[in-house]
Amino acid sequence: MVTARIAGLGTALPAAYEQDLLWRNAFREHFSGNRIAKRVFADAGVVRRHSVTDPAEFQAVTTWSTGERMRRFIERAPPLGLSAVRQALADAETDAEEVGLMAVVSCTGYGTPGLDIELARSLPLSPDARRLLVGHMGCHAAIPGLGAAAEYVQARSRPAVLLCLELTSLHLQPPSSEIEQMITHALFADAAAAIVLRPGDEGPGPRVVDFAARTDTAKSDHMTWHVTDLGFRMGLSPRVPDVLGEHIGPVVKDLLSRNGLEVSDVGSWAVHPGGPRVLDAVRDGLDLDPSALEASRTVLAEHGNCSSVTVMLVIRELLEHGPPPGPMVAVAFGPGLTLYAALLQP
User: Fold this and answer.
1) 142-180 in b/e burial notation, b at 16+ Cβ within 10 A?
2) Which of 101, 159, 170, 223 is 20 to 30 A off residue 120, Cα-Cα?
3) How would CATH label the architecture of 207-345?
């Protein structure tokens, strides 16, 4: 069987803002100085995050219609996406015309012709290149997107590109006293990341080996992402970490065992940092050393939760230190309540 290998990665980040300044200059007024909100922001594990929306605009954004937010997405997403993809192609030493599939993941903006068409025009892609949009799946969408791209590479022996791009700042909600909204506004941020997959067993990047998924439909109300007249509104139950802690062990251990591995064999962990409690639940559910999730906590501190992009930022953080020391497991979570895991091998 043809192997799909991660040959290149690229990221694109809008302007960075310190978390404490975001609280003082924007969200303190938004939440009317609420002490609980202040504590939520302080305990989010975020030092700084990125936004295409200037904090001076935040209050105006809360009044925008969904149509206005989509217009801003169509305006602001292409430059970020193009930058991330071009960086990934250069890293993979791959020409755009070689790409057979462009997969675009986003749950924060849509339009037709959309981001995939703009990338096809700007790169440009070959006219016969396939395009795939993975939409509104939420924070775990990068991993099924990676699976679709890898399967294309394996079936067609042509390179594929996966782009995840999220502009969560376009969905700031009106002032609220709900703790769910405090948590959401304290964590989420904007970013883009791209991966180039190439066929072949040789190369410096890890091979994409296998995937696992589990959806607990009985807990589907624990994490939601509803389209409203004022953008997309997140629902986030405080019980999410407990559910993840319940399922993470069986999902990951099944993925590893069918590939002849155990948790102790894993050299690095790329876990979506949905928040400090989520990472603690994964650590405890897999009985990991606290240092195993250092890359995830670093990404959370430096970038916040960028929805589908975040696990790709963690993979990049790990690979920047050289080839993975043995197998790598990437894990992400999203609405459903859904867990996805991917096994990568050197």
Assistant:
1) bbbbbbbbbbbbbeeebbbbbbbbbbbbbbbbeebeeeb
2) 170
3) 3-Layer(aba) Sandwich (3.40)
* DSSP 3-state of 113: coil
Give residue 90's Cα distance to chain centre: 22
> Which is it for the CA torsion 148, 133, 314, 271, positive or negative?
negative
pTM for the predicted model, two decimal places: 0.96
Could you give the 3-state DSSP secondary structure of residue 312? helix
In the chain, where are the structural domains located? Answer: 4-199, 207-345
- Kindly report, residue by residue over 171-215, the tens digit of the pLDDT: 999 999 999 999 999 999 999 999 999 998 777 899 999 999 999
Domains 4-199 and 207-345 equal at CATH topology level: yes
Tokens describing residue 226: 């509803």
Q: Which two tokens stand for residue 110?
A: 């849509």
